[in-house]
Amino acid sequence: MKKRISIYASLTVLLSPSIVMAEEVITSSSTSSSQDTLIDVSEESRDMEVTIFSDKDEISKESSEDSKVEKIVETKKEKEAELIFFNGEWIEIELEPEEIAGIEKYEQPEIDESNQNALGSFNSMIQLRASFSEPRVIESNNQSIPRIDFVDVSSHQGNISVADYQNMKKQGITGVVVKLTESTNYINPNAANQINNAKAAGLKVSAYHFSHFMNKDSAIAEARFFAKAAKDFGLDSSTVMVNDAEKSTMNNGRITENSIYFASTLENEFGFKRVVHYSMASWFTPTILDMARLGGDLSSWKAEFPYSPSKNNLLHQESSAWQWGSSTHFVGDSQKNRIFDTNIDYSNTFSTPLKYDIYPITKKTFIVNDLGAIYNEPYISGTIRQDTTEGMLNQMIDITAQSETGYGLWYQFSYVKAGINKVGWLKSTDIQDIIEEKEMHQLLYVNLENGAVYDTPYTETTKKIGTTANIKNKEFKVSKSAKTGYGVWYFGNYEQDNAKKSGWIKSTDLVNELVVITPISDKIFIINGNAAIYEKPYVEGVKRQDVTTGMDGQVIDLTAKSETTFGEWYEFSYVKAGLKKTGWIKSTDTMNTIDEKKENKMLYISNENGAVYDTPYTASTQKIGTTNGFKNKEFKVSKSALTGYGLWYFGTYTQDKEKKSGWINTTDLTDNIVVTTPISDKTFIMNNNGAIYEKPYVEGVKRQDVTTGMSGQVIDLTAKSTTSFGAWYEFSYVKSGVKKVGWIKSTDTQSIIEEKNENQVFSIVNEKGAVYDSPYTASTQKIGTTAGFRNKEFKVSKSAKTGYGLWYYGEYTQNNTKKVGWIKSVDLDNNLNVIMPTSDKTFIMNNNGAIYEKPYVEGVKRQDVTIGMSGQVIDLTAKSRTSFGEWYEFSYVKSGVKKIGWIKSTDTQSIIEEKNENSLFTIINENGAVYDSPYTADTKKIGTTSGFKNKEFKVSESAKTGYGLWYYGEYTQNNTKKVGWIKSSDIAK
Length: 989
Description:
By secondary structure, the chain is mainly β. The radius of gyration is 51 Å and the shape is flat.
């Protein structure tokens, strides 16, 4: 018996989807026609002999195809594989495992607008980039990015108008890949608009499907859904169809095989012959997407998004295309916030190839045709005109590329129209490198030693024929001028090294007069808020670099001066917009002396080393005397004036019984005779907004700081002075890490603070203390000492604080006489402390207990906390009781430092871990002791283990002390039962 199957000679529509099982060739009951090829398969023959017949000559005879199919069928049967017709040939695919086979094994996801995906949604490189930077929007006119040949779109971009597509086309786009479908139920609602408008704009249209398939049946189902949608949208079989294979669940070890089923279904059932596979670049490996089996690298479209994509670093050139960006905004797009995925097409798969060569160049030139056309690409038949040069006559432009077509030579350039940056192409006849050539006769001077001399007005092809070395300030006789994109140029004759020469020199290297610059050093005021600042002393052609806006009244330092036919000019440094610059200002926009006015007052000379001048001080002022020997003498002021060096007073004074006059700086004068007296005292700052001056305040003295944040701070006073503005104290302080000396007003300080009544009894603890008549300051009187009063009562009735500490006023008895006075707090204690030596061990039980420098009473400082010491055994060396409890002295180590401190008894425990036991031990030490309790310093010894070695010890309790582990139990001695505590090291089980 034979089974018969009818296939077309082309073998492209053999089956649906053209899959033949190796163990069974599907039977077709249809009658073969003259175009049919018949395959006879004999069931009896294990060799599966196949014979091909045809009426057509090219397929009627037995051919090599017979044996090829025969061999494939035999092989497949042995390997449990299947045959599939793909990319024009039969290929073998190993059968998929039963656990994933069949449509019932995979439920197609339901997709809508809320969960639909776009191309690149799962691209790992996007996630990698996002880990260190938000995606940056890239503008399409960025000159450094790779070429943009086509974009891919989905419903995320919404409807795209023909005008918006044409705007992209002007910027180099010639193709668009539109998302049609996802899974087996989602269709892009914007697809019709996106396809039809792209076609209307003249763009090549391709389509993609976002895949989910995980086995053969789901791959076939998704391909059919995709292909039907493509047909419905009017896309013919020449359309490039894309398998967007990026979802991680697809990578189950069968993604290559499933993609073959997908692509072969599109080709064999629907005639779509060009299928490309898209994914992140890292998936294109033999173990994931094996392009050796899927049609080669030219059937791959790879995605990888560098942080800074560059036209000088083109990746994946072996592929059909590279998707290099996911956030590009096209300049001129009607939606300002819309971004696109952008791609370079290495194979013209998705875009239309250029019909000409483009070469990058760099040059500057001028538009000379006011009616020239600007195209979106070098002009060929059908190229769209995007603009005209109207209004751009004589405008300088930067050329970035050139191309030659059958219509002439074309140049690419950037320009702005209606506020939009654009790129276009202009014909070479509409531009000119050199304009405004004219004859002229003028004598100029060379102003630059490092200038160049050229054979023509400078352009990219100009030759350098000399330099201006050694001819600065020499004559240059001009006979012609011209303009290029690099400035204005003069042609003339000059003499160099005794030889007559000629050439073109840039206008900025020439001046129409000799400029001599003289160094100076002076200070001056700008008095014109709208004056020009030039890059050099002004002569014709010198550029203005700034205006003095906001600089009126500002003091400037002059470094040079120069005189030209346009006046006198000063060089100075200044800062604008955070940049330090040097420029030249006209002398009439400045003034040496301002604010001159009459005065009538008496000042005093305060500086013995001051100078007396004939005018308010400037660089040209003459010194006519000094203030040596005049300190605190009268200076009768009649005038004042301001210069760049400060405020100056003109007045009369007497020297050697002779009246003299002159100008003295305000810093060398005072309105008071200021006498400074050294002191040594401490006080408190009480005003948080007090002023700190550089010296005792009189009129004109500068404030150097404010006491913000210093209220309540103790300061050391080193001097005092009284002026008509009050008493002032000198002190040292630190601000922003800098140590300073200043003067503070006495009313902003206070020697004694926090005075209050008390009613308590202290004991005197220091035999060498002092008794004062008031809380101690520098002026306090000592009225006694505490010698012989240790541990005697001191009945306190008042307390107060000074810069020297806390003080108590009270009553005490000396030689049967009651006395009163102020004693420092550190010399007193509110408990009579008795410290007793001890030797014991105990456990610290509080992990947050305080450790003090001595037995705690009020005022004793905490020196540490027992953090990390809970459960630690400590050796006690002394104990003491105060009104705050019982305290133990002990040694401990903190941060590698050995210390001694006091801990409260309630933060310790002598015996821990007490518990019941029921064990039988043997006494192993004949020299052990028996105690009435677990051993501590207070435990009583009630016996020994002498004579008990190897005797039973029935244990009923155990406990731990600082001396080890102890057991309580019963033993027999001289036929008498006894009990007691024995150390664990003296017994054994």
